[in-house]
Amino acid sequence: MTAHRATARSARWPLLSRLRLAARAVVLWLDRVIERRNQRLALAELTDEQLEDIGLTRRDVERECRPFWKR
User: How far is 14 from 9, CA to CA, in rounded Å?
Assistant: First the structure.
């Protein structure tokens, strides 16, 4: 392997590392979004009595479950 090839290869590694980190950050963010969505769906399925036990009203749940662009 020539010195030029070795330099080109080592120059790619930081880029690949950054891409891997960025991809991992996107996957973690998406995982959090999906988890929050699932929690909101579970919250919406609770009865009024169950909501009262945890100190929420149906209106609170509707507000929380509304898409962010409709708030």
Answer: 10
Question: What is the token pair recorded at 38?
Answer: 């699932």
pLDDT digits (tens, 9 = 90+) for 23-48: 999 999 999 999 999 999 999 999 99
- What's the CA gap between 27 and 37, in Å, rounded? 15
Q: Which residue spans within the chain are E strands per DSSP?
A: none
pTM score, whole prediction: 0.67
Give dist(CA 29, CA 33) in Å, integer. Answer: 6
Q: How many residues does the chain have?
A: 71
pLDDT of residue 6: 58
Q: Where would I find the H helices in 3-69?
A: 3-44, 48-53, 58-65
